[in-house]
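[Meeting: bench + compute handoff]

Bench side (C.D.) handed over the final construct sequence. Compute side (W.E.) agreed to return the predicted structure before the next meeting so the bench team could plan truncations. Sequence as handed over:
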Amino acid sequence: MSAMVDRGSDAADSAPGRVAAQLREELLDGIHPVGTRLREEELAARFDVARHTVRSALRSLVDARLVSHERNRGVVVAPLDRQRIDEVFDYRKVLELGALRIALDNSVDLSSVEDRVEQLEALAGRSTPAAWHELTLVHSAIHEAIVALSGNSLLVDSYRRCEDEVRLLLTFVRPDFDAASMAMKHRALFESLRRGGDEAIEALTSDIDDTGRAAVLHSLTRLEDAARLLGR
């Protein structure tokens, strides 16, 4: 089984990279709620770095769409809305289904996908619960492996551009999923991929739309209902 490597650590050799990597991990663990302002002066004091270092780190998080820069407010944790959810999941669907069709046409070996599913099952079998960012990292690796089956590096690069944003959106479904349920769903997905044909396409479509997108939309409804109750 291959080791799990979080590419977010690749750029962490510089001071801005270290700040960005720490904030990225916190965002992907859902520590900073939507709308939280990330203030340069507070972060500079926390990390004991200059404000220009923090500014550079935040710029990289804006580029990854994990946070957004709002006029007169500065950098805030990016909001959750229906348009954003649909954009991200439609993007995933085009990439993953296109890549899977190429892979099925070429009868490729699916062992790389099964390796990632086994990593998820190993997390589910641990005596101590896995951190949420660990689960979403392996979940992302499963879907990247599906894209990589196409043998097309441009498709893989395109998937990686949305990878962190998908993981951020999944922080909102945390109350509805755990390692065991995620492992079970992805084992079933893999078995459908192995059988191939229309069943494989339908299973991946269902995973993206009926599991992923639907769960995030449900979380959005839950947040909107809570905001109405609070009179916001």
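W.E. noted at the follow-up: The first helix runs from residue 15 to 28. C.D. will use this when planning the next construct.
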